[in-house]
Amino acid sequence: MRFFKYHALGNDYLVIDPADCRVELTGLEIRLICHRNYGVGSDGILVGPLKVEGADFGLRIYNPDGSEAEKSGNGLRIFSRYLWDCGVVHDAPFSVLTAGGSVESRVHPGGRFVTVEMGRVSFESTEIPVKGTPREVLNETIIIQGRPWQFSAATIGNPHCVIIREEVSALEAKEVGPLIETNPLFPNRTNVQFMKILDRGNIRIEIWERGAGYTLASGSSSSAAAAVARRLGLCDEAVTVHMPGGKLDIKVSDEYLIVMTGPVTKVSEGTLSQEIFSQRL
Which one-letter DSSP state was computed for residue 122? Predict the structure, then answer.
């Protein structure tokens, strides 16, 4: 089984063409492949290109715990770069359909930067989803271990919970993130961003990613956090999102349509041995 490994600001994915898969990957196989000690190691697996109706390419995105993600901004940039490396796409925009909807992508000359039109952010509880009466989920309170946390929620095809902090840290993201991810308030679990407003054009976030854990960068998290910052009147249309892995440029339109631009780096390519699937985690 062939694989191609890329990272986007330290958020790494393996790309596997379904034509190279003997069978559909199971949850156990995905967990083994993504494991940092027993497999290749990655923050997820991108399976594509797939033949779909209504888009140029289809893509399935898997978290390292074996669950399927609706959308991934970094994953989409990586998949776009992979298509470019294969000579399947060039400088013209193309569409990719994920479980979280269709996006339009464009690889910049040289392949190192990719722009993705991620779609529209919604703050509606029924779309995210968040339990309770239908509403925009803005500046609400959640109790975690007896402590109140103010949050806003959003979806860009996958769910996000954004918490504004005076300071952000990896330690807090790792300690509080998993408790919010699995809180009953979020029926489908949620990605969590701890956000500091630097100024009207810059924010800093630490990320706990649903199904993956602490991560150095996330495109959909950056999109959701920037949209929340603009919805609350704290930032303007153009926002640079600072993360431990680096920076992404996000544009948030008046209709909360997101355009994301950021780098992709190719790491390696190789062949997965059948022997690794004899292991049990």
Answer: B
